[in-house]
Amino acid sequence: MPQNNQTLLEKTVADQWQTLPSGLTVLVRPMPGYSSTHVIYATKFGSIDRDFCLNGQTVHLPAGVAHFLEHKMFEDEDGDAFAKYAKTGANANAFTSFDRTCYLFTATQQLDESLDVLLGMVGHPYFTEQTIAKEQGIIGQEIKMYDDSPDWRLITGLFECLYHSHPIRSDIAGTVESIAEITPAMLYNSCKAFYAPGNMVLAAAGNTTMEQILAACKRHGLMESRPAQKVQRLWASEPMTLAATEKTLTMPVSKPCFGVGFKEEPLPADDLRTEALYDLVLSCIVGGMSPLYRRLYDEGLVNPGFGGEVLRVDGCCCILFTGESDVPDTVRQLLLDEIARVRAAGVDREVFTLCKNEKYGQLIENLENVEDSASQMADFALSGQTVAQQISMLAGLTAEDADAALQHILCTDRMATMYIQPDGTAQAAEEDEEEEG
To answer: Which residues form the Peptidase M16 C-terminal domain (predicted)?
Structure first.
Protein backbone atom coordinates (compact mmCIF):
# COMPACT_ATOMS: atom_id res chain seq x y z
CA MET A 1 0.00 0.00 0.00
CA PRO A 2 1.39 3.45 -0.86
CA GLN A 3 2.98 5.23 2.10
CA ASN A 4 0.88 8.38 1.79
CA ASN A 5 -2.38 6.38 1.89
CA GLN A 6 -1.11 4.40 4.85
CA THR A 7 -0.37 7.57 6.79
CA LEU A 8 -3.83 8.93 6.01
CA LEU A 9 -5.41 5.65 7.11
CA GLU A 10 -3.50 5.63 10.38
CA LYS A 11 -4.77 9.13 11.06
CA THR A 12 -8.30 8.04 10.24
CA VAL A 13 -8.32 5.03 12.60
CA ALA A 14 -6.08 6.50 15.30
CA ASP A 15 -7.50 5.48 18.66
CA GLN A 16 -7.26 7.79 21.64
CA TRP A 17 -4.95 5.85 23.99
CA GLN A 18 -3.99 6.74 27.54
CA THR A 19 -2.23 4.87 30.32
CA LEU A 20 -3.61 6.06 33.65
CA PRO A 21 -1.59 6.50 36.88
CA SER A 22 -3.18 3.27 38.13
CA GLY A 23 -1.66 1.43 35.15
CA LEU A 24 -4.95 0.94 33.31
CA THR A 25 -4.84 1.29 29.52
CA VAL A 26 -7.81 3.26 28.16
CA LEU A 27 -8.76 3.42 24.48
CA VAL A 28 -11.64 5.42 23.05
CA ARG A 29 -12.91 5.71 19.50
CA PRO A 30 -15.50 8.52 19.31
CA MET A 31 -17.95 7.82 16.48
CA PRO A 32 -20.05 10.95 15.91
CA GLY A 33 -23.53 10.26 14.62
CA TYR A 34 -23.81 6.83 16.26
CA SER A 35 -26.49 6.40 18.92
CA SER A 36 -24.92 3.55 20.89
CA THR A 37 -21.67 2.95 22.76
CA HIS A 38 -19.92 -0.37 23.27
CA VAL A 39 -17.55 -0.75 26.23
CA ILE A 40 -15.19 -3.63 27.02
CA TYR A 41 -13.24 -4.09 30.25
CA ALA A 42 -10.68 -6.83 29.66
CA THR A 43 -7.99 -8.53 31.71
CA LYS A 44 -5.15 -10.78 30.58
CA PHE A 45 -6.41 -13.65 32.72
CA GLY A 46 -7.77 -16.77 31.08
CA SER A 47 -8.13 -20.49 31.60
CA ILE A 48 -4.42 -21.18 30.99
CA ASP A 49 -3.33 -18.93 33.89
CA ARG A 50 -3.38 -21.56 36.60
CA ASP A 51 0.07 -21.41 38.18
CA PHE A 52 1.70 -18.17 39.28
CA CYS A 53 3.79 -16.55 41.95
CA LEU A 54 2.17 -13.55 43.70
CA ASN A 55 4.45 -11.43 45.86
CA GLY A 56 6.67 -14.44 46.51
CA GLN A 57 3.81 -16.88 47.20
CA THR A 58 3.16 -19.73 44.74
CA VAL A 59 -0.49 -20.20 43.79
CA HIS A 60 -1.95 -23.21 41.98
CA LEU A 61 -5.49 -22.99 40.62
CA PRO A 62 -7.72 -25.87 39.55
CA ALA A 63 -9.07 -25.80 36.01
CA GLY A 64 -11.94 -23.37 35.43
CA VAL A 65 -11.13 -20.58 37.92
CA ALA A 66 -10.97 -17.71 35.39
CA HIS A 67 -14.38 -18.67 33.96
CA PHE A 68 -15.85 -19.18 37.45
CA LEU A 69 -14.54 -15.76 38.49
CA GLU A 70 -16.19 -14.16 35.45
CA HIS A 71 -19.56 -15.47 36.64
CA LYS A 72 -19.02 -14.37 40.23
CA MET A 73 -18.01 -10.82 39.27
CA PHE A 74 -21.65 -10.04 38.53
CA GLU A 75 -22.61 -10.55 42.18
CA ASP A 76 -21.85 -8.28 45.10
CA GLU A 77 -23.29 -7.37 48.48
CA ASP A 78 -25.77 -5.02 46.79
CA GLY A 79 -27.19 -7.67 44.48
CA ASP A 80 -26.82 -8.70 40.87
CA ALA A 81 -25.09 -6.49 38.26
CA PHE A 82 -27.48 -7.64 35.54
CA ALA A 83 -30.35 -6.13 37.53
CA LYS A 84 -28.43 -2.85 37.73
CA TYR A 85 -27.79 -2.90 33.98
CA ALA A 86 -31.51 -3.51 33.42
CA LYS A 87 -32.24 -0.19 35.12
CA THR A 88 -29.85 1.67 32.78
CA GLY A 89 -31.14 -0.11 29.68
CA ALA A 90 -27.71 -1.53 28.82
CA ASN A 91 -27.22 -4.95 27.24
CA ALA A 92 -24.40 -6.62 29.19
CA ASN A 93 -22.41 -9.82 28.84
CA ALA A 94 -19.00 -11.38 29.57
CA PHE A 95 -16.81 -14.20 28.31
CA THR A 96 -13.66 -16.08 29.20
CA SER A 97 -11.16 -17.49 26.70
CA PHE A 98 -7.84 -19.25 27.08
CA ASP A 99 -5.91 -16.05 27.78
CA ARG A 100 -8.38 -13.29 28.71
CA THR A 101 -11.65 -12.40 30.44
CA CYS A 102 -13.84 -9.63 29.04
CA TYR A 103 -16.81 -7.77 30.52
CA LEU A 104 -18.87 -5.71 28.11
CA PHE A 105 -22.04 -3.77 27.53
CA THR A 106 -23.80 -1.76 24.84
CA ALA A 107 -25.79 1.32 25.86
CA THR A 108 -27.83 3.95 24.06
CA GLN A 109 -28.62 5.94 27.21
CA GLN A 110 -27.36 6.43 30.77
CA LEU A 111 -23.81 5.60 29.71
CA ASP A 112 -22.31 7.04 32.90
CA GLU A 113 -24.53 4.86 35.06
CA SER A 114 -23.61 1.74 33.05
CA LEU A 115 -19.92 2.59 33.30
CA ASP A 116 -20.33 2.84 37.07
CA VAL A 117 -21.90 -0.63 37.16
CA LEU A 118 -19.06 -2.10 35.09
CA LEU A 119 -16.16 -0.46 36.91
CA GLY A 120 -17.80 -1.01 40.28
CA MET A 121 -18.46 -4.73 39.91
CA VAL A 122 -14.99 -5.52 38.50
CA GLY A 123 -13.23 -3.24 40.97
CA HIS A 124 -14.93 -4.58 44.11
CA PRO A 125 -15.16 -8.40 44.01
CA TYR A 126 -17.26 -10.14 46.63
CA PHE A 127 -17.13 -13.88 47.33
CA THR A 128 -18.48 -16.13 50.09
CA GLU A 129 -18.60 -19.88 50.60
CA GLN A 130 -22.37 -19.76 50.08
CA THR A 131 -22.32 -17.87 46.77
CA ILE A 132 -19.51 -20.08 45.48
CA ALA A 133 -21.45 -23.25 46.30
CA LYS A 134 -24.48 -21.91 44.43
CA GLU A 135 -22.38 -21.09 41.35
CA GLN A 136 -20.72 -24.51 41.33
CA GLY A 137 -24.09 -26.08 40.53
CA ILE A 138 -24.87 -23.56 37.79
CA ILE A 139 -21.50 -23.92 36.07
CA GLY A 140 -21.66 -27.69 36.44
CA GLN A 141 -24.67 -27.64 34.11
CA GLU A 142 -22.77 -25.41 31.67
CA ILE A 143 -19.86 -27.87 31.64
CA LYS A 144 -22.21 -30.71 30.71
CA MET A 145 -23.53 -28.58 27.86
CA TYR A 146 -19.98 -28.16 26.51
CA ASP A 147 -19.49 -31.91 26.80
CA ASP A 148 -22.41 -32.35 24.39
CA SER A 149 -20.92 -30.00 21.76
CA PRO A 150 -19.07 -31.93 19.01
CA ASP A 151 -17.29 -28.77 17.80
CA TRP A 152 -15.87 -28.12 21.26
CA ARG A 153 -14.98 -31.78 21.88
CA LEU A 154 -13.14 -31.81 18.56
CA ILE A 155 -10.97 -28.84 19.53
CA THR A 156 -10.26 -30.06 23.06
CA GLY A 157 -9.46 -33.53 21.71
CA LEU A 158 -6.86 -32.02 19.38
CA PHE A 159 -5.31 -30.10 22.27
CA GLU A 160 -5.04 -33.32 24.27
CA CYS A 161 -3.17 -34.90 21.35
CA LEU A 162 -0.87 -31.95 20.66
CA TYR A 163 0.13 -31.04 24.24
CA HIS A 164 1.57 -33.01 27.13
CA SER A 165 1.11 -30.57 30.01
CA HIS A 166 0.13 -27.10 28.74
CA PRO A 167 -3.09 -26.00 30.50
CA ILE A 168 -4.78 -25.50 27.11
CA ARG A 169 -5.52 -29.21 27.44
CA SER A 170 -8.16 -28.36 30.07
CA ASP A 171 -11.62 -27.08 29.26
CA ILE A 172 -12.05 -23.33 29.80
CA ALA A 173 -14.90 -24.02 32.23
CA GLY A 174 -12.99 -26.79 34.00
CA THR A 175 -14.67 -29.96 35.20
CA VAL A 176 -17.32 -30.57 37.84
CA GLU A 177 -14.54 -31.99 40.03
CA SER A 178 -12.08 -29.11 39.48
CA ILE A 179 -14.55 -26.30 40.21
CA ALA A 180 -15.58 -28.10 43.42
CA GLU A 181 -12.09 -27.20 44.73
CA ILE A 182 -12.58 -23.44 44.30
CA THR A 183 -12.45 -21.32 47.46
CA PRO A 184 -12.93 -17.60 48.16
CA ALA A 185 -9.16 -17.31 48.79
CA MET A 186 -8.40 -18.61 45.28
CA LEU A 187 -10.73 -16.06 43.73
CA TYR A 188 -9.37 -13.17 45.78
CA ASN A 189 -5.78 -14.18 44.93
CA SER A 190 -6.70 -14.29 41.24
CA CYS A 191 -8.23 -10.82 41.45
CA LYS A 192 -5.19 -9.42 43.24
CA ALA A 193 -2.84 -10.93 40.64
CA PHE A 194 -4.70 -10.38 37.38
CA TYR A 195 -7.43 -7.80 37.96
CA ALA A 196 -4.86 -5.14 38.80
CA PRO A 197 -5.35 -2.09 36.49
CA GLY A 198 -1.89 -2.57 34.99
CA ASN A 199 -3.04 -5.93 33.59
CA MET A 200 -6.29 -4.54 32.14
CA VAL A 201 -7.68 -2.61 29.18
CA LEU A 202 -10.79 -0.43 29.01
CA ALA A 203 -11.99 0.19 25.43
CA ALA A 204 -15.01 2.19 24.28
CA ALA A 205 -16.36 3.00 20.82
CA GLY A 206 -19.41 4.95 19.70
CA ASN A 207 -21.29 7.89 21.15
CA THR A 208 -18.74 8.88 23.79
CA THR A 209 -15.48 10.76 24.35
CA MET A 210 -12.21 10.15 26.15
CA GLU A 211 -13.25 12.81 28.68
CA GLN A 212 -16.41 10.90 29.57
CA ILE A 213 -14.55 7.60 29.99
CA LEU A 214 -11.79 9.22 32.07
CA ALA A 215 -14.39 10.85 34.29
CA ALA A 216 -15.81 7.40 35.05
CA CYS A 217 -12.31 6.11 35.77
CA LYS A 218 -11.77 8.98 38.18
CA ARG A 219 -15.00 8.18 40.03
CA HIS A 220 -13.63 4.68 40.66
CA GLY A 221 -10.14 5.66 41.77
CA LEU A 222 -8.41 4.57 38.56
CA MET A 223 -6.69 7.94 38.12
CA GLU A 224 -4.70 7.29 41.29
CA SER A 225 -1.40 5.37 41.32
CA ARG A 226 -1.53 1.78 42.54
CA PRO A 227 1.28 -0.38 43.90
CA ALA A 228 2.29 -2.84 41.20
CA GLN A 229 1.55 -6.47 42.03
CA LYS A 230 4.56 -8.71 41.45
CA VAL A 231 3.08 -11.58 39.45
CA GLN A 232 5.06 -14.23 37.63
CA ARG A 233 3.26 -16.82 35.55
CA LEU A 234 4.72 -20.30 36.01
CA TRP A 235 4.85 -22.68 33.05
CA ALA A 236 5.80 -26.35 32.91
CA SER A 237 8.23 -27.24 30.15
CA GLU A 238 6.36 -28.31 27.01
CA PRO A 239 8.31 -30.34 24.43
CA MET A 240 7.60 -30.08 20.70
CA THR A 241 6.66 -33.77 20.56
CA LEU A 242 3.03 -34.93 20.55
CA ALA A 243 1.14 -36.46 23.45
CA ALA A 244 -0.77 -38.60 20.92
CA THR A 245 -1.07 -38.75 17.14
CA GLU A 246 -4.70 -39.80 16.94
CA LYS A 247 -7.86 -39.88 19.01
CA THR A 248 -11.41 -41.10 18.26
CA LEU A 249 -14.67 -40.81 20.17
CA THR A 250 -18.33 -41.39 19.37
CA MET A 251 -21.12 -38.88 19.86
CA PRO A 252 -24.73 -38.37 18.67
CA VAL A 253 -23.76 -36.63 15.40
CA SER A 254 -25.30 -37.28 11.99
CA LYS A 255 -22.03 -36.94 10.07
CA PRO A 256 -18.44 -37.71 11.11
CA CYS A 257 -16.43 -34.74 12.38
CA PHE A 258 -12.68 -34.55 12.11
CA GLY A 259 -9.79 -32.28 12.96
CA VAL A 260 -6.16 -32.12 11.90
CA GLY A 261 -3.84 -30.21 14.22
CA PHE A 262 -0.23 -29.08 13.83
CA LYS A 263 1.93 -28.15 16.82
CA GLU A 264 4.03 -25.06 16.12
CA GLU A 265 6.75 -23.23 18.03
CA PRO A 266 5.26 -20.78 20.58
CA LEU A 267 5.31 -17.12 19.52
CA PRO A 268 6.39 -14.13 21.64
CA ALA A 269 3.43 -12.40 23.30
CA ASP A 270 3.68 -9.29 21.12
CA ASP A 271 4.31 -11.09 17.81
CA LEU A 272 1.00 -10.41 16.07
CA ARG A 273 2.78 -10.26 12.71
CA THR A 274 3.62 -13.97 12.59
CA GLU A 275 0.13 -14.89 13.79
CA ALA A 276 -1.42 -12.81 10.99
CA LEU A 277 1.01 -14.34 8.48
CA TYR A 278 0.06 -17.89 9.50
CA ASP A 279 -3.60 -16.91 9.16
CA LEU A 280 -2.96 -15.66 5.63
CA VAL A 281 -1.16 -18.91 4.75
CA LEU A 282 -4.23 -20.87 5.89
CA SER A 283 -6.50 -18.71 3.75
CA CYS A 284 -4.33 -19.49 0.72
CA ILE A 285 -4.54 -23.24 1.43
CA VAL A 286 -8.13 -23.82 2.60
CA GLY A 287 -9.85 -20.41 2.47
CA GLY A 288 -12.98 -19.84 0.44
CA MET A 289 -10.93 -18.57 -2.52
CA SER A 290 -8.44 -21.46 -2.51
CA PRO A 291 -8.47 -24.23 -5.17
CA LEU A 292 -8.58 -26.93 -2.48
CA TYR A 293 -11.67 -25.52 -0.77
CA ARG A 294 -13.50 -25.20 -4.09
CA ARG A 295 -12.68 -28.80 -4.97
CA LEU A 296 -13.69 -30.19 -1.58
CA TYR A 297 -16.94 -28.25 -1.60
CA ASP A 298 -17.84 -28.91 -5.25
CA GLU A 299 -17.29 -32.64 -4.81
CA GLY A 300 -19.32 -32.69 -1.58
CA LEU A 301 -16.37 -33.91 0.49
CA VAL A 302 -16.82 -31.32 3.27
CA ASN A 303 -19.53 -29.07 4.64
CA PRO A 304 -19.27 -25.26 4.17
CA GLY A 305 -17.88 -24.89 7.69
CA PHE A 306 -14.60 -26.62 6.87
CA GLY A 307 -11.60 -24.36 7.43
CA GLY A 308 -8.43 -23.60 9.34
CA GLU A 309 -7.51 -21.38 12.28
CA VAL A 310 -4.42 -20.29 14.17
CA LEU A 311 -4.56 -20.51 17.95
CA ARG A 312 -1.81 -18.72 19.86
CA VAL A 313 -1.55 -18.12 23.60
CA ASP A 314 1.42 -17.95 25.98
CA GLY A 315 3.53 -21.08 25.55
CA CYS A 316 1.34 -22.51 22.80
CA CYS A 317 0.82 -22.08 19.07
CA CYS A 318 -1.05 -24.52 16.88
CA ILE A 319 -2.82 -24.62 13.53
CA LEU A 320 -6.12 -26.49 13.35
CA PHE A 321 -8.25 -27.67 10.42
CA THR A 322 -11.75 -28.87 11.31
CA GLY A 323 -14.97 -29.82 9.58
CA GLU A 324 -17.51 -32.54 8.81
CA SER A 325 -17.01 -35.22 6.15
CA ASP A 326 -18.15 -38.73 5.30
CA VAL A 327 -14.58 -39.41 4.12
CA PRO A 328 -12.33 -37.60 6.63
CA ASP A 329 -9.19 -39.55 5.71
CA THR A 330 -9.61 -38.61 2.06
CA VAL A 331 -9.96 -34.93 3.00
CA ARG A 332 -6.94 -35.15 5.30
CA GLN A 333 -4.78 -36.60 2.51
CA LEU A 334 -5.96 -33.96 0.03
CA LEU A 335 -5.09 -31.31 2.62
CA LEU A 336 -1.59 -32.74 3.13
CA ASP A 337 -1.07 -32.97 -0.63
CA GLU A 338 -2.07 -29.32 -1.04
CA ILE A 339 0.23 -28.19 1.77
CA ALA A 340 3.12 -30.03 0.10
CA ARG A 341 2.25 -28.57 -3.31
CA VAL A 342 2.01 -24.98 -2.05
CA ARG A 343 5.20 -25.40 -0.01
CA ALA A 344 7.06 -26.51 -3.15
CA ALA A 345 5.50 -24.08 -5.66
CA GLY A 346 4.87 -21.09 -3.40
CA VAL A 347 1.51 -19.54 -2.59
CA ASP A 348 -0.56 -18.45 -5.58
CA ARG A 349 0.13 -14.71 -5.85
CA GLU A 350 -3.39 -13.84 -6.98
CA VAL A 351 -5.00 -15.89 -4.20
CA PHE A 352 -2.62 -14.35 -1.65
CA THR A 353 -3.56 -10.82 -2.76
CA LEU A 354 -7.28 -11.63 -2.62
CA CYS A 355 -6.99 -13.15 0.86
CA LYS A 356 -4.90 -10.28 2.14
CA ASN A 357 -7.33 -7.70 0.75
CA GLU A 358 -10.23 -9.58 2.36
CA LYS A 359 -8.60 -9.49 5.80
CA TYR A 360 -7.53 -5.89 5.32
CA GLY A 361 -11.10 -4.99 4.38
CA GLN A 362 -12.45 -6.76 7.46
CA LEU A 363 -10.24 -4.66 9.76
CA ILE A 364 -11.53 -1.50 8.07
CA GLU A 365 -15.14 -2.70 8.08
CA ASN A 366 -14.94 -3.35 11.82
CA LEU A 367 -14.27 0.35 12.35
CA GLU A 368 -17.83 1.14 11.25
CA ASN A 369 -19.47 -1.01 13.95
CA VAL A 370 -19.33 0.02 17.61
CA GLU A 371 -19.10 -3.56 18.94
CA ASP A 372 -16.44 -4.68 16.46
CA SER A 373 -14.48 -1.45 16.81
CA ALA A 374 -14.26 -1.69 20.62
CA SER A 375 -13.46 -5.42 20.46
CA GLN A 376 -10.72 -4.83 17.92
CA MET A 377 -9.14 -2.09 20.04
CA ALA A 378 -9.22 -4.23 23.19
CA ASP A 379 -7.82 -7.33 21.46
CA PHE A 380 -4.82 -5.53 20.01
CA ALA A 381 -4.23 -3.40 23.12
CA LEU A 382 -3.87 -6.53 25.26
CA SER A 383 -0.82 -7.24 23.10
CA GLY A 384 0.37 -3.63 23.32
CA GLN A 385 -0.69 -2.54 19.83
CA THR A 386 -3.18 -0.20 18.21
CA VAL A 387 -5.59 -0.97 15.38
CA ALA A 388 -3.62 1.38 13.13
CA GLN A 389 -0.42 -0.56 13.82
CA GLN A 390 -2.16 -3.85 13.03
CA ILE A 391 -3.53 -2.50 9.75
CA SER A 392 -0.11 -1.16 8.79
CA MET A 393 1.51 -4.49 9.67
CA LEU A 394 -0.98 -6.47 7.57
CA ALA A 395 -0.40 -4.15 4.62
CA GLY A 396 3.31 -4.98 4.75
CA LEU A 397 2.96 -8.78 4.54
CA THR A 398 4.07 -10.31 1.24
CA ALA A 399 3.67 -13.60 -0.59
CA GLU A 400 7.39 -14.15 -0.08
CA ASP A 401 6.80 -13.94 3.68
CA ALA A 402 4.15 -16.65 3.33
CA ASP A 403 6.50 -18.86 1.29
CA ALA A 404 9.20 -18.54 3.95
CA ALA A 405 6.76 -19.37 6.78
CA LEU A 406 5.57 -22.50 4.96
CA GLN A 407 9.05 -23.98 5.08
CA HIS A 408 8.83 -24.53 8.84
CA ILE A 409 5.12 -24.89 9.72
CA LEU A 410 2.48 -27.57 9.05
CA CYS A 411 4.99 -30.42 9.41
CA THR A 412 3.54 -33.94 9.48
CA ASP A 413 5.84 -35.06 12.30
CA ARG A 414 3.97 -32.58 14.54
CA MET A 415 0.49 -33.50 13.26
CA ALA A 416 -2.39 -35.11 15.16
CA THR A 417 -5.81 -36.23 13.95
CA MET A 418 -9.08 -36.23 15.90
CA TYR A 419 -12.23 -38.09 14.83
CA ILE A 420 -15.78 -37.95 16.15
CA GLN A 421 -17.83 -40.81 14.75
CA PRO A 422 -21.66 -41.06 14.87
CA ASP A 423 -22.92 -43.35 17.61
CA GLY A 424 -26.09 -44.03 15.64
CA THR A 425 -28.54 -42.15 17.87
CA ALA A 426 -28.72 -39.01 15.71
CA GLN A 427 -29.37 -41.03 12.55
CA ALA A 428 -32.02 -43.10 14.32
CA ALA A 429 -33.74 -39.89 15.50
CA GLU A 430 -33.75 -38.52 11.95
CA GLU A 431 -35.25 -41.75 10.63
CA ASP A 432 -37.96 -41.62 13.32
CA GLU A 433 -38.82 -38.06 12.29
CA GLU A 434 -39.06 -39.11 8.64
CA GLU A 435 -41.40 -41.98 9.54
CA GLU A 436 -43.57 -39.65 11.62
CA GLY A 437 -43.63 -37.17 8.75
So the answer is: 182-357
